[in-house]
Design a protein that fits this description.
elongated; mainly alpha
Length: 70
């Protein structure tokens, strides 16, 4: 395939190819989308709380160590 010089023709060809590829995509239905969104939110909340707890515990431990060496 010969490379076209005109930038607008190349951009048009690129956008046509993108559109063709998007037609091949299998999009999730509404039910699947809701389930995966809820799963992501629950897992994010769980790890947020977990990391907050770990951070709180380590901060408390290091504060106690710093207090001992003052």
């Amino acid at each position: 395939m010969e490379k076209e010089k005109n930038i607008f023709k190349r951009m048009g060809a690129y956008l046509r190819e993108v559109r063709g590829e998007l037609k091949k995509v299998t999009w999730p239905n509404r039910n699947d989308l809701i389930k995966t969104t809820v799963a992501v939110l629950v897992i994010s909340l769980f790890f947020g709380v977990y990391l907050f707890g770990v951070d709180f515990i380590f901060a408390h431990i290091f504060n106690q160590i710093a207090y001992v060496f003052k």
